[in-house]
Amino acid sequence: MSEIAVRGPSGAGRDDAGGGDALAAVAALVRRDLRAFLRSRSQLYSSVVFPLMLLAILGTGVNDGLDPKNIRDYVTFLTPGMIAMTAVFSSTFSSASYYQDRDSGILKVLLASPHSARVVLLGKTLSAVCIGAVQALLVLAVASAIPAIHFQWQYGVVGSLLVSVFAIVALNLFLSGLGQLLASKIHSMQGFHLVMNLVLFPFLFFSGAFFPLNDLPVWLKVLGRLNPLSYGVDMMHLALYADGSGGYFGLPLDFAVLTALAVAVFYFGTSRSVSPDR
To answer: How far does the chain reach from its first CA to its final CA, in angstroms?
Structure first.
C-alpha cells in the first residue's frame, strides 16, 4: 500500500527512521490517545453504563415480558452481545479521533515527523484497540458481579476468561482496523459515522448477539456465517453462556476465522495512505 513520503532538506525519506524510533513513536501515540480517553470521563462512564443499562432493560424485558422458549436465561445470553456492542461503539468513537486530529492540525504535525504514515496510523489504531478492549473488559467484569447473570464458565473460570479476552482483543483489532480503513478514505466525520453505522449495525444484529442463529431462515443464517462479529460472539457464548454446547460454529473455527480477519483488516487499516488536507 502506498504511503506518504514527505522528504526533509536532505531528501531522505522518513521511512529511514530506525525500528526502535518507530516503536517509540507508536508508543507515544498510544499514550497520547489513552490520556485523552481517560480525561474524557463522560465517554469512559457512558461506554460502560450504556451496555449495562441496555442489558438490564432489554434483557429483563425479553426474559420476563416475552418469555423466549428457545433461549435459556436471556439476560446471560445477551451479555456477550453487549460486550461486542461495546467494541463496536468504541471502534467508531476512537476512529473518529482521526478527524479531530486532522481538523485541529495535529495530523499535519504527526505526518511531518521523521516517521512514515504507517507508523502514525499504527499508533492511533493500537490506541483504539486498547481503549475498546478496556471498555469491553470493564463491561465483562461488572456483568460477572451481577447476581442475575449466571455465567457457566464452560472451560473453567481462567480458561473461559482467556477465551473471552482473546475474542475481545481480536474483535477490537478487526473493528479498529476497519474504522481506520474507512476513516482514511472518507472525507468528513459525518460521512464516516453514517458509513460505520451502515456497516456495523447489520454486523451486530446478524452476529447472534440478540437472538440465536440456529432457528433463523436460511438467508439470515448465511448472513450470520459471513459476519465476522458472529465468530467473536460465538467464542464468548461458548466461554460464558454455554454449558457443553458446541455453539454456532465451534471454538476451532471461531479462533481461525477471527484471527485471520483481525490480522488482515488491522494490517490493511494501518497501511492506507493518509492526507492531512482531506
So the answer is: 18
Please report where in the chains the cell 451486530 appears, as a residue.
204
How many residues appear in the chain?
Answer: 278
Rounded Cα distance, 100 and 192, in Å: 12
CA dist 116 → 3, 11, 95, 111, 247 (Å)? 7, 14, 19, 7, 43
Contact between 121 and 107 under an 8 Å Cβ cutoff? The reply is no
Domain boundaries, the chain: 15-269
Which three cell numbers, joined as nine digits, stand for 266? 488491522
Q: How many other CB atoms sit within 10 Å of the CB of residue 70?
A: 8
Please write the tens of the pLDDT for every residue from 98-116.
Answer: 777 777 777 777 767 666 7
3-state secondary structure of 112: coil
Q: 34-86 pLDDT, tens per residue?
A: 777 667 666 666 666 777 777 777 666 666 656 666 677 888 888 998 898 88
Report how many helices (DSSP H) and strands (DSSP E) the chain contains, helices first: 12, 0
